[in-house]
Amino acid sequence: MTFRETVGRRLLLLVACLATVVVLGSWDNQREIERVLEHGYATTAQITGAQFQRSMPFALDGWWPRLVEQGLSIDLSWQGKDGRPRAHKKVPVTEGFARTIISSDQVKLITLPVRVQDDDRAVPVVIADSAPRLASLQSWLKISGYIATFAWATIAAMGIWRWRRGVSPTIASPPATVDMPRRLLFGLLAVVVGVIVAFYGWSAGEQSEEAAAGVVDTTAEIIGINETPSKAGTSATYSVQLAWKDDQGAVHHYGPLSISEAFWKTITDNGRLAVRQTRVRIPADSQARPSIPADRPDPGWQARLGLISGLVLAVAGLGLLVSALWRMRRLKL
C-alpha cells in the first residue's frame, strides 16, 4: 500500500468514526427529548447562562457523554416537584430560538416554559423550541448517516478490492490497470452520495422548521416591532410581536419572533410599521414557536454544512472520474 493510499484510508476512517459518533449522539438526543416530552412535567425555568459550542460540541451529564449538536446551549435552573432547586447545564437551542433570547451578544436571563424530569441525566426541553429541535436532529441524522455510510462502504470496498486482487500490503504500488477501476468505483460512489447529501441540505434549507403535521394557518396582528442595530462583529437583528385568535376566540400572543431583513423591509417604512397583519402557521402546541410563510427562514448551519459537504464530495468524485478516464485513455485501456 502506497503512502497516499495509507493517508487516504486513515482520513476515511476518521471521517467514518466522526460521522458515526454524530449519528449515535443525534439519535440519543432525539430519544431523550421524546422521553422528557412524554414523561416529564411542565414548569418554568430560569436561564442562568449560555455558551457557544462550536469548538467543543460535547457535554457530560455525570459520567455520561452527550453530543451538543447546536451552536448555542443554555444553562437552566428550576424548582423540582420535591421542592428542591435543580439545574442543568448545556441545553442546546436552535438558531431560530437563539435569536429570540439574544440581544446583541448578550443572552437574556429570562424564564421559559419547559418540560423536565427530576433526573440529573434528563436534559430539559424548552417547549417553544421542541419542534424545531427535533426537526434539526432529523437533519443531523440524515446528513451524518449518508456521510458515515459512504465512508464505511468505501473503506470496505477498498479492503475487498485489495483482497480480490491479492495485493499484499507490502507491495509499494499497484499496477495502473488495477488502479483505474478502483478510481472509477470511488469516483462514482462519491458523486452519487455527494449529490444525495447536497440535495438534502438544499431541501432542508428550503422548508420551514415548523413544517410539521398539525399546523394551522391563520391571520395574526403585528402588534410590535423591534430592530437591534448592528455592532462590531454582529449584524442587525429584527423581530415582531404577534397576536391572534384561535377557533374558540381566545387571544394568543407570541414574541419577540425573529424575522429576516427582507421581511422587515416589506412590513416597515422608514423604520415604522406599515403592514399590520400577516399570515402565520401555528403548531398544534400553542406554546410552540409560530412561523411566517412570507418570511423565508434562514436554513440552519447543519443544512448549509450538508449542502457544502455534498458539493465538495460530488466535485471530488468528478475529479476521480475524470482522472481515471484520462489515465485510461493515455494507457489505451
Structure description:
With 333 residues, the chain is of the alpha+beta class. It folds into three domains: 111 residues, no CATH class; 89 residues; 81 residues. Helix content is 45%, strand content 27%. The protein is built from six helices and 15 strands. The strands form five sheets. It has a five-stranded antiparallel sheet with strand order 5-4-1-8-9. The protein has a four-stranded antiparallel sheet with strand order 12-11-10-15. A two-stranded antiparallel ribbon has the order 2-3. Strand 4 and strand 5 form a beta hairpin. The two termini are 23 Å apart. About 4% of the residues have low confidence.
Q: What structural category characterises the helix and strand content?
A: alpha+beta
Order of strands across the main sheet: 5-4-1-8-9
- Proportion of beta-strand residues: 25-35%
- Biggest beta sheet attributes: 5 strands, antiparallel
Tell the overall outline.
Answer: globular
Helix content: 40-55%
The domain tally reads 3
Using DSSP, what is the number of strands? 15
Radius of gyration: 25 Å
The helix/strand order is HEEEEEHEEEEHHEEEHEEEH
Counting H and I runs of at least 4 residues, what is the number of helices?
6
Q: Cα distance, first to last residue?
A: 23 Å
Give the overall pLDDT as a whole number. Answer: 77
Low-confidence stretches are: 168-174, 208-213
